[in-house]
Amino acid sequence: MIGIAIEERVSAVIHAGDLFEDRSPSAEDLQDMLQALSKLKEAGIKFLGIVGNHEQRRSGKLQWLDLFAELGLAVHLSLEPYELSGIQIYGLDYSGRQRVKLPQLKGGVLVAHQLLDTVSPNGELKFADLIGCGAEFVLLGDYHEHKVWRDGGILITYSGSTERWSLDERTRRGCNIIDLETQRLDRRELTTRRFVYIAEDEDPLKGIDAALTSVAKGDISAHQKDAVVCVYLSDSQYTVEEIEEYGRSKGALAVRVIRGGSPHLQEPSERELDISVEFGDLDLLVSERLDQMPLSETSRRIDSIVRDLEKIADSAVDAEVGKILEWITKS
């Protein structure tokens, strides 16, 4: 995406939240982000962003985006407008899974990280409210698919994620290039991680070998490491953990074992629902499912404490949860 931005000589890159998968990125993730933002700065391109639900830090007001801003590599957008070539740009960080009250603007761009009611029945952001908020452009994050609406002279769009995040996400990923003078939107596709599917009538280990081993025939890629491997399993002599471990040993980025069904490329709404996915890592399964549920921030914090995602000692769990509940009671 950065390569496209530099090649197109854009004025700014606007990111609508979730720079990181969670609020405790690794040192390697931070290093990669610093290097990426430095490339943009060297090219004279502004990086404007807001905070999404995955990366939002709740213990204090300082966010990772604020750190990058302090280093002169980013601008943390807020309801105080940032002016870009005479256009006012406003930002609204993720504000929970309850109905969002929008500010009244006089033109310009609003960047927000929320679910619209047109993409999710429980969306906390109402389409009618967006139409009436006064912005000329609304750039949204949180929903992973690319969507565009034009209504009453307003352009509303989700650029979608730059990577596929789950097995259901089969459409191509990309980014938007928007001309703020003409409202023209150009879509650019991005090269994303590979998804490899092993059919249920194949031996799972041999299938992984065939998929992740270098080949040199026709148009087949010579190297498919760092792929997400989806193994469809019926009866097998191997356990889920053995299949996962073997796939990772062969260079797979992740391995998912699915019981029932067969690999195909139909849209999610057309697929049979009588399949189950088994994980050796149960915490990962729980985290992914909870991210799809409209839970309050308090519920997510308690879950993190109870499941030790915040690395809190067992002896301190009751006290930490108690503090949260006491705060809710007082509020």
Your description of this structure?
There is one protein chain. This protein is 27% helix and 21% strand. With 331 residues, the protein is an alpha/beta fold. The protein has 3 domains: 188 residues, Purple Acid Phosphatase, chain A, domain 2; 85 residues, no CATH class; 36 residues, no CATH class. It has a 6-stranded mixed sheet, with no helix packed on it. Strands 12-13-14-15 form a 4-stranded mixed sheet, with helices on one face. Strand 6, helix 4 and strand 7 form a beta-alpha-beta unit. Helix 8 runs antiparallel to helix 9. The chain is globular, with a radius of gyration of 22 Å. The two termini are 43 Å apart.
* Multimeric state: single chain
| Number of helical regions | 9
> Overall pLDDT, averaged?
84
Backbone shape? globular
Q: Distance between the terminal alpha carbons, to the nearest Å?
A: 43 Å
> Strands of the biggest beta sheet: in what spatial order?
4-5-6-7-9-8
How many domains, in number, for the residues?
Answer: 3
